[in-house]
């Protein structure tokens, strides 16, 4: 296998309950195990059907026994959730938990997957990641919650190291969908085989065979997982490839030839469309007579005003392709890398040396003159395949499509006062800004109850938040940190002490901090906006607007530089705004909105 946010106010309470129920790291290990199993299941259809979003479902009883499994074989077939419910049986499903590697992608009014879980009496659903496509993201999560199903999303409602690893596996198995959603081009992998001295052919152009038979079998597997395979004109002329998956049936990828001049031979294996189809993309007006010849052979010819990899990939994006495998030579590969359309690399390195000053290399000129300009692979892995070594890694990081500044649909679900038509966005960050009072650092003391029943005054929300990293531990050093933070002269100093101590002494931070920190912030904010009427009025004056904490570096509480942050602070404020608004309407004090 190749795989080596918030909703309603109820979620905050559920999150806190989960953190205080004693479900520690051992529980998360079990949760991660089931998610990994869902990932493995979801990958089973690769190479059988045309690549599609990979869905897997595992149903487990409260005792931790797996009773149902399923995976989506192909688009339009029975959903993984339905298969898992049918395997388990309705009686066993009642009160059980369903583990999904990705949020269901019901669309066009088809809610089969959601209905199957709800009608079977599934009590809880754990989702590995939200759907990467904007028009589907969050819809199934909201639908399930609206039916009373407890939904936890990895990275949002569940946090730990093992959870992060499980979440990463969910992203990897659907990397093609995530890249496509983020970059609006298909997920592209560059594959090549080279000798130990970096040659993909001899000086004469002869290249059969550099890699071993086992490596070539892996390439066939890669082809079967792809929507299409791209080669250039040189590859067609020199190698006369077939580019078929040759795995005994099932999905056959489209074969794409990129050539500016259309200087191609009349006889080529790619012109035989009895096994697989071929598309030739070329410059507008190139060899019109040869274009007609190709069309007569059943080849589709597509012209571009200017032929470059970016335009070609955007075209195939529009055609609905998810993943592309590039098996081209050095000239085209360098052009594709320079265009930013290559996301991953598979390099088979054979223990052979062929030499040759003019022997071709896998990547041509990139214009780099210093080693510091070299492109580094991310998440690199090494694998021995027969006598060869397979080096693989990402040229571009997998996009994090966790909901950031909430989508309009999601924001509307949090706060119905936000319309779906051009909502106003209010940014806040520093306390001296127009809406600076929304910041945790604003000088508004809060009086909060302690476990003992006594009330303690904190100089700011930030003081309260930072101190609670260490509260609850019967440790003198932790208690000392709490006192230092409470006595800090400013919110900035409180933040500095809290963050520094957390980095230096992570063992003194309460073990459930990542689970409860949202609830800690929520309680502090609710107190702040409840005891200061003018702050309450300011918050309610933003009705209909999206609130975004404009921190460029805090990707959890803030929105980030490019909107890549989770913006949890803005989300909590919008949630509180909705709660306060409901209270005013109940008490008949809605005139506050006109103030």
TrEMBL record:
| InterPro entries xrefs | CMP_dCMP_dom, Cytidine_deaminase-like, DHFR-like_dom_sf, Eubact_RibD, NADAR, RibD_C, RibDG_C, Riboflavin_Biosynth_HTPR
Q: Which residues form the CMP/dCMP-type deaminase domain?
A: 29-140
Q: Where are the transmembrane segments?
A: none
Q: Which of the seven top EC classes does this enzyme belong to?
A: oxidoreductase
Instruction: List the EC numbers from the record.
Output: 1.1.1.193
Q: Which GO terms describe its molecular function?
A: 5-amino-6-(5-phosphoribosylamino)uracil reductase activity; diaminohydroxyphosphoribosylaminopyrimidine deaminase activity; hydrolase activity, hydrolyzing N-glycosyl compounds; NADP binding
This enzyme catalyses:
2,5-diamino-6-hydroxy-4-(5-phosphoribosylamino)-pyrimidine + H2O = 2,5,6-triamino-4-hydroxypyrimidine + D-ribose 5-phosphate; 5-amino-6-(5-phospho-D-ribosylamino)uracil + H2O = 5,6-diaminouracil + D-ribose 5-phosphate
Gene Ontology BP terms: carbohydrate derivative metabolic process; riboflavin biosynthetic process
Keyword match NADP: yes
> Which Pfam families did the record assign?
dCMP_cyt_deam_1 (PF00383), NADAR (PF08719), RibD_C (PF01872)
Pathways involved:
Cofactor biosynthesis; riboflavin biosynthesis; 5-amino-6-(D-ribitylamino)uracil from GTP: step 3/4
What are the entry keywords? Glycosidase, Hydrolase, Multifunctional enzyme, NADP, Oxidoreductase
Residues annotated as coiled-coil are none
Entry's PANTHER family?
Answer: 2,5-DIAMINO-6-RIBOSYLAMINO-4(3H)-PYRIMIDINONE 5'-PHOSPHATE REDUCTASE (PTHR38011:SF7), DIHYDROFOLATE REDUCTASE FAMILY PROTEIN (AFU_ORTHOLOGUE AFUA_8G06820) (PTHR38011)
Q: What is this protein called?
A: 5-amino-6-(5-phosphoribosylamino)uracil reductase
């Amino acid at each position: 296998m190749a795989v080596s946010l918030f909703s309603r106010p109820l979620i905050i309470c559920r999150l806190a309950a989960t953190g205080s129920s004693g479900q520690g790291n051992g529980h998360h290990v079990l949760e991660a195990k089931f998610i990994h199993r869902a990932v493995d299941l979801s990958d089973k259809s690769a190479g059988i059907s045309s690549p599609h979003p990979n869905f897997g479902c595992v149903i487990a009883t409260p005792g931790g026994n797996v009773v149902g499994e399923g995976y989506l074989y192909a688009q339009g077939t029975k959903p993984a959730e339905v298969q898992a419910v049918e395997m388990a049986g309705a009686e066993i499903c009642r009160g059980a938990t369903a583990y999904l590697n990705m949020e269901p992608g019901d669309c066009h009014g088809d809610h089969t997957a959601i209905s199957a879980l709800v009608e079977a009496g599934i009590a809880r659903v754990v989702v590995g990641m939200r759907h990467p496509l904007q028009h589907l993201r969050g819809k199934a999560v909201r639908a399930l919650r609206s039916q009373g199903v407890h939904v936890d999303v990895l990275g949002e409602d569940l946090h730990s190291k093992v959870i992060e690893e499980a979440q990463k596996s969910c992203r990897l198995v659907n990397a093609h969908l995530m890249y496509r959603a983020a970059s609006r081009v298909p997920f592209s992998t560059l594959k090549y085989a080279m000798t130990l001295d970096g040659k993909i052919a001899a000086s004469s152009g002869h290249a059969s065979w550099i890699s071993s038979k086992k490596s070539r079998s892996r390439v066939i597997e890669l082809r079967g997982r792809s929507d299409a395979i791209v080669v250039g004109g040189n590859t067609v002329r020199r190698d006369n490839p077939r580019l078929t998956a040759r795995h005994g049936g099932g999905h056959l990828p489209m074969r794409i030839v990129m050539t500016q001049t259309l200087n191609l031979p009349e006889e080529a294996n790619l012109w035989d469309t009895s096994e697989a189809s071929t598309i030739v993309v070329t410059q507008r007006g190139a060899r019109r007579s040869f274009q007609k010849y190709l069309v007569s052979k059943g080849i589709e010819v597509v012209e571009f005003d200017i032929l470059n990899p970016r335009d070609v990939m955007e075209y195939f994006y529009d055609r609905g392709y998810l993943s592309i495998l590039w098996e081209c030579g050095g000239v085209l590969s360098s052009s594709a890398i320079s265009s930013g359309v290559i996301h991953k690399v598979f390099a088979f390195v054979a223990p052979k040396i062929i030499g040759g000053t003019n022997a071709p290399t896998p990547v041509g000129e990139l214009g780099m003159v210093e080693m510091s300009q070299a492109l580094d692979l991310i998440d690199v892995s090494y694998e021995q395949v027969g006598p060869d070594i397979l080096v693989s890694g990402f040229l571009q990081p997998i996009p994090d499509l966790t909901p950031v500044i909430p989508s309009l649909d999601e924001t509307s679900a949090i706060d119905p006062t936000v319309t779906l038509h051009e909502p106003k966005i209010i940014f806040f960050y520093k306390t001296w800004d127009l809406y600076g009072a929304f910041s945790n650092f604003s000088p508004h003391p809060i009086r909060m109850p302690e476990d003992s029943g006594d009330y303690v005054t904190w100089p700011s929300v930030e003081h309260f938040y930072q101190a609670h990293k260490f509260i609850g531990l019967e440790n003198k050093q932790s208690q000392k940190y709490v006192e230092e933070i409470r006595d800090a002269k400013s919110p900035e100093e409180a933040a500095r002490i809290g963050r520094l101590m957390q980095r230096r002494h992570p063992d003194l931070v309460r073990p459930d901090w990542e689970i409860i920190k949202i609830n800690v912030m929520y309680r502090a904010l609710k107190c702040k906006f409840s005891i200061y009427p003018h702050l309450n009025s300011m918050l309610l004056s933003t009705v209909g607007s999206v609130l975004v904490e404009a921190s460029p570096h805090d990707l959890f509480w803030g929105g980030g530089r490019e909107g890549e942050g989770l913006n949890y602070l803005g989300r909590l404020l919008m949630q509180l705004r909705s709660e306060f608004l409901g209270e005013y309407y109940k008490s008949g004090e809605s005139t506050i909105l006109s103030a």
